[in-house]
Amino acid sequence: MFLHRNHEMYFGSDIYLTLLLMFAGILTVLRLLWFTEGLKRISLTTIGFFQYITPTITFLLGVFVFENKITLMHWISSSFIWLSLVVFSIASWKGKNKKVRVKANFS
């Protein structure tokens, strides 16, 4: 009510803006539904790995595009995160290869 009394209400004030806001909500819901369907098709390990992509891209944009000052501690912490992901990926890959070899011996 406060926004309506002060003539600052956005939804419903302009037909173009109202339609834009409505379709933005629909697109948000569709994106979340598609994300949920995608989660059903891949493993939780892959999902966890993909969760590191966005922060990494944000970090790299801050460094190279926006020229933020990055301390040595930022570089070290990012390196440890990606090093742990590499170690996890190698261990996971070796575990899958071992399971394939065991199945092949019993066939």
Which features characterize this protein?
107 residues; mainly alpha
Please state the overall shape, judged from the principal axes of the Cα atoms. Answer: flat
Number of strands: 0
Beta-strand fraction estimate: under 5%
**What's the overall average pLDDT, rounded?**
80
Low-confidence runs of at least 5 consecutive residues:
none
Q: Termini, distance in Å?
A: 72 Å
| Structural Rg | 23 Å
Order of helices and strands: HHHHH
Sheet with most strands: none
Helical stretch count? 5
- Which oligomerization state do the chains in this entry correspond to? single chain
- Estimated structural class: mainly alpha
Q: Level of helix content? A: over 70%
Overall description:
The chain is mostly helical. Helices cover 80% and strands 0% of the residues. The protein is built from five helices and no strands. It is flat and about 65 Å long.
What's the helix and strand layout?
Blueprint (H helix, E strand, L loop, with lengths): L1 H4 L9 H27 L2 H7 L2 H13 L6 H35 L1
Task: Put the structure in a nutshell.
The protein is mainly α and 107 residues long. The model has no long low-confidence stretch (mean pLDDT 80).
